[in-house]
C-alpha cells in the first residue's frame, strides 16, 4: 500500500454496496498497517472523485479543492496515525445530492432526506464494508485500533442513523459490540440537510443511552464544528435550533469529552465557507 486506491462496489449487508476511497498512512509497512487507526468519512453533497466533479456543470468549480482525493489528503494530515476511508454515497441524485440509502431509509431519495429508525442495520453494513475492505488490503481487521467517524454536511445523517441504532446494535452479538467498541470519536462537521426537521438528534433519552450507557466506559469523544452557513440560514432555522439542543445535551452527558466550535463567525455563510471547515477544523 503506497498510494490511494478506489475500491468499487465493496459488499456490506446483503444487497448493499458502496465505493470506498482509501488513503493509507505514509510511510507504511505490514506492521504499521495492522495497528493503525481508521478515519471513516461520510461526505456531503457535491463531493465525489475529482474526475466526476470536474464534468459536472455546477460542481466543477469545487473539484480540485473538495473532491475525495483532496479531502483524503486533508484528513491524512490531521490524523497522521490513521488510514483514511471515504464512503461514497450509493447514489448521487442529479450528480449533486448525496443519498446514503445503504445506511438510512430515504424520505426523499431525490435530495437525500433521511427517515431515521432503530433497525436499518447501518452498523452491520458499515462493519461488513470495513471488514471486506481490510480483506482486500490484507490487513487484519481484529488489529484495528481506534475508529473515528466523521460526517460532513449531509454525511452527518449517517452518524445520526448509527446513534439511532446503537442501543439495539450492541445487544445483538459479541461481534457487534466489538466493532462499536473500536469507536473513539464522532465528528459532526457543519451537519444539515433540507428536510425541514431531524438534521440533528434532539431525543435526550437516546443521547443519554448512547453516550451515558453504551459508551460510558469507552471514553468516546464528540466534536461539533459549525459555520454560519448552517447556523445563520434563515430558510432552515431548524438546523440552528436542533444543533443547540444536541450540543446542550451532550455537554451535560460527556462534560470534557464534548467540544463545540463555531468557525468563521463574522463571515458571510456561503457554500465556500461551508467547505472550508474541512481545512479549518482540528482534531
Walkthrough of the structure:
It holds the Pfam family C2orf69. The structure is a single chain. By secondary structure, the chain is of the alpha/beta class. Helix content is 37%, strand content 22%. It has helices at 30-35, 50-53, 63-66, 68-78, 122-137, 156-169, 174-180, 204-214, 228-231, 237-254, 271-280, and strands at residues 5-11, 17-23, 37-42, 82-87, 91-93, 97-99, 105-108, 113-115, 147-152, 183-189, 221-226, 258-262. Helix 8 (204-214) packs parallel to helix 10. The protein starts with a strand and ends with a helix. The model has no long low-confidence stretch (mean pLDDT 92).
Encode the helix/strand succession as letters. Answer: EEHEHHHEEEEEHEHHEHEHHEH
CATH architecture: 3-Layer(aba) Sandwich
Number of separate strands: 12
Rg value: 18 Å
Strand content: 15-25%
CATH C-level class:
Alpha Beta
Write down the overall mean pLDDT: 92
CATH topology: Rossmann fold
Largest sheet: 8 strands, mixed
The helix-and-strand class reads: alpha/beta
Instruction: Going across the biggest sheet, name each strand in turn.
Output: 1-2-4-3-9-10-11-12
How many distinct folded domains? 1
Pfam families: C2orf69 (PF10561)
InterPro entries: C2orf69_mit
Amino acid at each position: 500500500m503506497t498510494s490511494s486506491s478506489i475500491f468499487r462496489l465493496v459488499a456490506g449487508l446483503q444487497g448493499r454496496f458502496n465505493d470506498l476511497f482509501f488513503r493509507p498512512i505514509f510511510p507504511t509497512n505490514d506492521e504499521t498497517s495492522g495497528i493503525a487507526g481508521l478515519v471513516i468519512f461520510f461526505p456531503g453533497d457535491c463531493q465525489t472523485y475529482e474526475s466526476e466533479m470536474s464534468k459536472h456543470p455546477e460542481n466543477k468549480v469545487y473539484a480540485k479543492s473538495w473532491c475525495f482525493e483532496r479531502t483524503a489528503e486533508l484528513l491524512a494530515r490531521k490524523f497522521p496515525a490513521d488510514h483514511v476511508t471515504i464512503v461514497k454515497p450509493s447514489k448521487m441524485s442529479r450528480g449533486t445530492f448525496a443519498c446514503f440509502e445503504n445506511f438510512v431509509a430515504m424520505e426523499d431519495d431525490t435530495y437525500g432526506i433521511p427517515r431515521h429508525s432503530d433497525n436499518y442495520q447501518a452498523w452491520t453494513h458499515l462493519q461488513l464494508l470495513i471488514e471486506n475492505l481490510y480483506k482486500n488490503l490484507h490487513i487484519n481487521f481484529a488489529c484495528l485500533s481506534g475508529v473515528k467517524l466523521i460526517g460532513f454536511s449531509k454525511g452527518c445523517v449517517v452518524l445520526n442513523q448509527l446513534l439511532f441504532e446503537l442501543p439495539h446494535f450492541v445487544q445483538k452479538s459479541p461481534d457487534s459490540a466489538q466493532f462499536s467498541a473500536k469507536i473513539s470519536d464522532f465528528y459532526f462537521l457543519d451537519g444539515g440537510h433540507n428536510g425541514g426537521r431531524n438534521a440533528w438528534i434532539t431525543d435526550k433519552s437516546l443521547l443519554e443511552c448512547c453516550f451515558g450507557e453504551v459508551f460510558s466506559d469507552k471514553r468516546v469523544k464528540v466534536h461539533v464544528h459549525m459555520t454560519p452557513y448552517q447556523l445563520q440560514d434563515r430558510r432552515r432555522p431548524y438546523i440552528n435550533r436542533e444543533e443547540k439542543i444536541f450540543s446542550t445535551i451532550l455537554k451535560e452527558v460527556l462534560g470534557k469529552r464534548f467540544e463545540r466550535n463555531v468557525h468563521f463567525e463574522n463571515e458571510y455563510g456561503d457554500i465556500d465557507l461551508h467547505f472550508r471547515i474541512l481545512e479549518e477544523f482540528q482534531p
